[in-house]
Amino acid sequence: MIRSKITGTGMYVPERVVTNHDLAQRMETSDEWIQQRSGIVERRHVDGTETPVDLAEHAARHALEAAGVGPDEIDGIVLATLSPQHEFPGTSFFLHHRLGVPEIPCFDLRAQCSGFLFSLATADAFIRSGQMRRVLVVGCEVHSTGLEFSTRGRDTAVLFGDGAGAVVLEANDGADDRSGLLAIRLHAQGEHAKRLWIEAPGSAFWPERITKQMMDEGRHFARMEGRFVFKHAVTRMPEVLREALDAAGTKLDDIDLFLFHQANLRINEFVASSLGIAPEKCPSNIERYGNCSAASIPMLLDEVVRGGRLRPGQLVAMTAFGSGFTWATAVVRW
Ligand code: UT7
């Protein structure tokens, strides 16, 4: 049986550090409020010299290098983002050009904060069907240009950051190698699409996708019903985690590391304590990077791999929840 396996990881964040104190200069907020509600201390923002494809390229090259493969050896690129380089074509096409890959397929996948896991599932399906042997999977976000840095936008502006993470997913048909993706489960609930969204520009509007008036009203900035999202996140994340563990034939206690989407430290603490998971099994980087949506999980994965916290043979469960709503878990034997 063909199983897919992550053979390289990479991440990249822009250099510019924006602290909670920096944000408190621009809106009515405080370091105390942000840390207490979310666990975030600082995040990275682009400074005008880098765009999403720059972030994605760095992360992708690190992942390819770790996997020991060249860009000309991959069969496809799946890139998850909610903050694309341009309206169309997707960021993946700009990355395709940057990497100088042959005429392999690439596309963007839009599943917001669960986008990386949805992309991993897509790449896994290509590999298990035999259509591809090696796929580059990227999560990449530049949120900072889509947030409202004023008191009106403070509930979202303080939460999100810029960054990219990537993995190389390969076919593992070695009879002795038990490592790889054991199970992945994905869900969505479109009825809550407007609870966390950027409304405009959009083709839903006529005769133009965005107007000056809509911009004055701030309808091109992220809007969220925070409490509602929080409540659903802490319900759905344990649900899908248990579902994927069952599918993988593993138990909660067997898992060595839980990589939760980095939306809010309080959400992850709530999920861990409700399931009786020890906090030391739940690494986080939200305090340094904020919520990087589709990039959060691959960034955290790269950190634990390079930091030696995830070792061959160990089991890791990755769980996300986000706009859509979407939620997902992947269980991987490293
Ligand atoms: O990545 C996708 C998934 N996203 C999430 O999972 C995020 C889920 N939601 C959350 O993490 C939390 O709901 C937040 C961190 C966004 C907000 O925390 P909360 O405890 O739910 O606060 P709240 O929205 O109920 O707001 C409480 C108060 C309000 O003031 P009043 O009405 O009580 O006077 C807000 O206006 O806090 C105020 N507030 C702020 N105050 C200082 C909202 N944002 C800020 C801010 N600084 N940045």
Tell me what you see in this structure.
The protein is α/β, with parallel strands linked by helices and 334 residues long. The protein folds into two domains: 3-172, 3-Layer(aba) Sandwich (Peroxisomal Thiolase, Chain A, domain 1), CATH 3.40.47.10; 180-333, 3-Layer(aba) Sandwich (Peroxisomal Thiolase, Chain A, domain 1). Helices cover 33% and strands 23% of the residues. It contains eleven helices and 13 strands. The protein has helices at 20-24, 31-38, 52-67, 91-99, 115-128, 154-157, 212-216, 226-248, 265-275, 286-289, 296-306, and strands spanning 3-12, 17-19, 42-44, 76-80, 106-109, 134-141, 163-172, 180-188, 196-197, 223-224, 257-260, 315-322, 326-333. Strands 1-7-6-4-5 form a five-stranded mixed beta sheet, with helices on both faces. The longest helix has 23 residues, at 226-248. The model has no long low-confidence stretch (mean pLDDT 97). The protein binds oxa(dethia)-CoA (UT7). The site of oxa(dethia)-CoA has 21 residues, from helix 2, helix 6, helix 8 and strand 12.
